[in-house]
């Protein structure tokens, strides 16, 4: 052994009172509360799915040739089963939707989620191997209003958490017929330049040329300027859908930029694709992404297609954007209502019992579990942000009444033990 164990690279602990927002448990609680509040306001219901999923669900759903499936899966075999630690939640949610016949519930299914995801990417600022997503999906809706609802709820989360300076990039990828036609045209354009392409793009040329549009390599981007444009191949229906969506976003006052080069890192998208960027958080600038995935259900075994649209966002990148915006999130440990101070063994026993009585009355109460001096216990009460300190020593046991100190004003009163809970509840609520 070479000293105490540490977290694995690309993972981190979340601690109370941490100065770094990403690793501060109070910041997580605050953000999770706000996200839930926004989701409920938009009438989304929570779904929770397992971290372990069948590898083939993810491979088929996201696409064999994507980076996520070909390079970044944490997967392993046990017996005859191949498991994967989920890299995202959209394919698992479609699985759950089919498995539990959620289509039989009335209307569209509006689901939201939060939870850990795993991708074996090279860790850097804003990129982890265990990271956390929140997101929302609407299943069973073909209408462009569903796309607009998804974008609206996503934007509302950032607004609620004080994050501005975001750019919504929007594109349409066409349907399952128009996309292959574009593949062919793009391929025909790029083949003569094959020797100028990076190895990754050359691999994609044969199997998934659309992903080449996503390149960050400068000379490839230059080359793509002369390439056929995706929008020219998009079918009429997808085009109309896109036009309606843009009008709806204008109605809602949600600004966007059209980006004909926007393709996503997952293969299941048709029609709408979007990404939310923030340029103040470093190279990993995508706060969130999503789009329409009308064919995903059939890819993972459904006989009928399920029109659906959704987004997912990184919690860690949300925190980086909140840092950039200087937005407040609760930091420091949560204050307690009451700190119990006891001196002497008998008083300790009594105070320990009183602790539970006050908690049962709904108060947040704590005490030192050592046997420190009165001064040291008072210091702990102060550090915990306690509003009241209740002091019990021999004299208090004899008289049956405790000393109650209001920590802000410093005033001290005496309260009989039986009246304590009521006295403190009325003053702290
Ligand atoms: P995605 O673009 O792969 O989409 O991931 C969504 C967000 O998760 C990213 O924008 C980013 O904020 C965060 N993220 C992804 N990988 C990492 C990482 N290694 N470290 C930190 N954050 C990361 C999806 O996952 C789709 N399921 C989105 C969707 C939902 N499409 C339709 N519905």
State the strand order across the main sheet: 1-5-6-11-10-9-7-8
Number of E-state strands: 16
Structural class: alpha+beta
- CA-to-CA gap between the ends? 51 Å
CATH class of the largest domain, named Alpha Beta
- Average the pLDDT over all residues and give the rounded result: 94
Major sheet characteristics: 8 strands, mixed
Fraction in beta strands: 15-25%
The poorly predicted ranges are none
CATH fold title of the largest domain: BirA Bifunctional Protein, domain 2
What is the number of helices? 15
The outline comes out as elongated
> In CATH, what is the homologous superfamily of the largest domain?
Bira Bifunctional Protein, Domain 2
Total domains, how many?
Answer: 2
Which ligands occur here? histidyl-adenosine monophosphate
In the CATH classification, which architecture of the largest domain applies? 2-Layer Sandwich
Measured as a percent range, the helix fraction is 25-40%
In angstroms, what is the radius of gyration? Answer: 28 Å
What topology does this entry show?
Elements: H1 25-41, E1 45-46, E2 52-54, H2 55-62, H3 67-71, E3 75-78, E4 81-85, H4 90-99, E5 109-118, E6 130-139, H5 144-160, E7 166-172, H6 178-190, H7 199-207, H8 218-224, H9 236-251, E8 257-258, E9 272-278, E10 286-292, H10 296-299, E11 308-314, H11 315-325, E12 338-342, H12 345-360, E13 365-367, H13 374-383, E14 388-392, H14 394-399, E15 401-406, E16 412-416, H15 417-428
Parallel strand pairs: 1-5, 7-8, 12-13, 12-14
Antiparallel strand pairs: 2-4, 3-4, 5-6, 6-11, 7-9, 9-10, 10-11, 14-15, 15-16
Helix pairs in contact: 1-5, 5-9
Bound molecules: histidyl-adenosine monophosphate (HAM).
């Amino acid at each position: 052994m070479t000293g105490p164990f540490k977290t694995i690279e690309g993972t981190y602990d979340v601690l109370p009172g941490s100065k770094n927002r990403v690793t501060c448990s109070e910041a997580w609680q605050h953000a999770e509360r706000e996200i839930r509040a926004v989701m409920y306001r938009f009438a989304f219901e929570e779904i929770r799915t397992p971290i372990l999923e069948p590898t083939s669900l993810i491979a088929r759903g996201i696409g064999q040739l994507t980076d996520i499936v070909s390079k970044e899966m944490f997967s392993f075999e046990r017996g005859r089963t191949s498991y994967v630690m989920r890299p995202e939640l959209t394919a698992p949610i479609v699985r759950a939707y089919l498995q539990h016949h959620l289509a039989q519930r009335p209307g569209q299914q509006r689901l939201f989620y939060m939870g850990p995801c795993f991708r074996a990417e090279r860790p850097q600022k804003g990129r982890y191997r265990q990271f956390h997503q929140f997101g929302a999906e609407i299943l069973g809706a073909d209408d462009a209003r569903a796309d607009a609802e998804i974008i609206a709820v996503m934007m509302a989360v950032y607004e609620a958490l004080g994050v501005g300076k975001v750019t919504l990039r929007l594109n349409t990828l066409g349907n399952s017929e128009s996309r292959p036609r574009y593949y062919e045209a793009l391929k025909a354009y790029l083949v003569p330049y094959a020797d100028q392409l990076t190895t990754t793009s050359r691999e994609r040329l044969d199997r998934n040329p659309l992903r080449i549009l996503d390149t960050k390599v400068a000379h490839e981007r230059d080359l793509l300027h002369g390439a056929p444009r995706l929008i020219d191949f998009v079918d009429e229906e997808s085009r109309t859908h896109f036009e309606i969506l843009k009008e709806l976003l204008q109605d809602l006052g949600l600004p966007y930029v059209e980006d004909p080069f926007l393709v996503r890192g997952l293969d299941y998208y048709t029609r709408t694709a979007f990404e939310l960027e923030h340029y103040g958080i470093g190279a990993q600038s995508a706060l969130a992404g999503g789009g329409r995935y009308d064919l995903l259900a059939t890819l993972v075994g459904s006989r009928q297609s399920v029109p659906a649209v959704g987004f997912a966002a990184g919690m860690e990148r949300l925190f980086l954007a909140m840092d950039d915006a200087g937005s407040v999130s609760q930091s420091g440990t949560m204050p307690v209502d009451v700190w119990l101070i006891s001196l002497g063994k008998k008083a300790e026993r009594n105070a320990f019992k009183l602790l539970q009585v006050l908690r049962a009355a709904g108060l947040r109460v704590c005490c030192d579990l050592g046997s420190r001096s009165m001064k040291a216990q008072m210091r702990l009460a102060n550090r915990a942000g306690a509003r009241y300190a209740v002091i019990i020593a021999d004299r208090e046991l004899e008289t049956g009444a405790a000393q109650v100190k209001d920590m802000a004003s410093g005033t001290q009163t005496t309260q009989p033990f039986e009246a304590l809970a009521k006295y403190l509840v009325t003053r702290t609520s």
